[in-house]
Amino acid sequence: xxxxxxxxxxxxxxxxxxxxxxxxVISSPPVMLLALQVGDSGALxxxxxRAAIAAAIDRGALYNVIFQKQGDVTASLLPQRISGYSxxxxxxxxxxxAHELRGGLAASLLTMSADGDGAIQLAAQRIALNLxxxxxxxxxxxxGAQRSDLALRKFLVPGNDPAATLEGISWEAxxxxxxxxxxxxxxYKREQSILNDHRIIPxxxxxxxxxxxxxxxDLHLRG
Length: 223
Description:
Number of strands: 9
Distance between the termini: 27 Å
Helix content: 25-40%
Largest sheet: 6 strands, mixed
């Protein structure tokens, strides 16, 4: 807006604000996955408890309120544009199911960290509120904490090769899952096996946005 730059990165949650400020903004396809990583020690060693956490999260609120309807709500590690089957993973919140899965487990303290500031911190706080409504006791970990029970992270979704992308995300999440499948159905089953453990809970596919100066012409982002 001051004319001092030709191209400036705009976080997904600020794209609409930049457009309202009459800036020219271009957006990439979804190239970042926002996901919650869940530990497997203590109460979280129980896969049903981890499943309860997944069922309790309101992805729609994150998408509509915090990220201003940028990107896509997802429960899949791979975006729809790459896999073609992301829509098969249900994204709706099910608070009743979350309570049933948690059962009568005492609400031991869980800590949550967020990989970033601004919208990521707000998203983590919203998730903590969701989990509180499901009977979990969650508080934000101190800044710089080395470990936490829950970690809200962004994962880069590089390229357009489904198998390589799925393997890359799982390895970055510490799952170390080799992916050799190529057919869509086989990839779907492989991803389903990863997600059934509820160690990583996909939430949103986010784009990258860029505000461009008026003198910049014909700038396009590769998909």
